[in-house]
């Protein structure tokens, strides 16, 4: 009974905390492809990033999320491709998602130091709900017993990303289709009688300030919005980078949590990171925070020199 009560608290928190359906990551700056398909190729080498997030430690069936992304520009430097797999678990529900990304990049300005990237993605999400595991006060409750779900739903998304060595700005819709769990999908909402995945609108921006030869300050922001179903939500982050190797930062997710982050560039190609979130609501008394770990690697295959090393390291 205690576990069921705790699970209901988790479900209520998810429902009322801006109704975000997609997994959230504190270290989203290292996970750009998860937010925007136009991010593909922006590190200018073959780049791979893996992130694992364990949310609300000590709460049974609390969210656990993971993503693995790989992307690279092609020989035709205007074109880039990406692939991302993500996993999300909450209570008795699980989702596995895989999408392929395509980006077309256009250099801007006389010196062509700014790039405009237009991206699209397509894939599928597998939704599973093992309702047999739900403990109820009514024996053999027909709403749960034998009512397991296993659905494959399509995903189509798009995004725009503008970036240089000093800044980035992006807008994306990771999934345009509003797929419902009865197997039907549409672009515009026509019914609320069944559970449905709603369209998420995302916007990101960040800038690099030089505070000296060995210190840089990097603020960034992530805006999330689910039209008609949740108000605008914001993630604010501020990071300091020391000697191009050590990252130390903090963040705030509006009315949700505070976060602290550290990352280290072990080599020019290999980086690791860790983030810890503290819940800012009354729910903080029921959990021990959230842990997030990150591993990234940039592969300079074919021996190509990195043209903009600062850019490759920071974004």
Structure commentary:
This protein is mostly beta strands and about 325 residues long. The protein has a single domain (about 1-315), classed as monomeric porin ompg (Porin, Beta Barrel). Helix content is about 10%, strand content about 50%. It is built from three helices and 17 strands. The chain has helices at about 1-15, 30-35, 310-315, and strands at about 45-55, 65-75, 80-90, 95-110, 115-130, 150-165, 165-175, 180, 185, 200-205, 210, 215-225, 230-240, 245-255, 255-265, 270-280, 290-300. The strands form two sheets. Strands 1-2-3-4-5-6-7-10-12-13-14-15-16-17 form a 14-stranded antiparallel beta barrel. It has a two-stranded antiparallel sheet with strand order 8-9. Strand 14 (about 245-255) and strand 15 form a beta hairpin. The chain is globular.
Name the helix and strand elements from N-terminus to C-terminus, one letter apiece.
Answer: HHEEEEEEEEEEEEEEEEEH
CATH class: Mainly Beta
- CATH topology descriptor: Porin
User: Main sheet?
Assistant: 14 strands, antiparallel, barrel
The level of helicity is: under 10%
Which regions contain 5 or more consecutive residues with pLDDT less than 50?
1-19, 183-194, 305-312
- Average of the residue pLDDT scores: 81
**What is the tally of beta strands?**
17
What is the second-level CATH architecture? Beta Barrel
Question: Which structural class do you get from the secondary structure elements?
Answer: mainly beta
Radius of gyration, in Å, reads: 20 Å
Overall body shape: globular
Number of helices: 3
Percent in strands: over 45%
Under CATH, the homologous superfamily reads monomeric porin ompg
Tally of discrete structural domains:
1
> First CA to last CA: what distance?
46 Å
The largest beta-sheet arranges its strands as 1-2-3-4-5-6-7-10-12-13-14-15-16-17
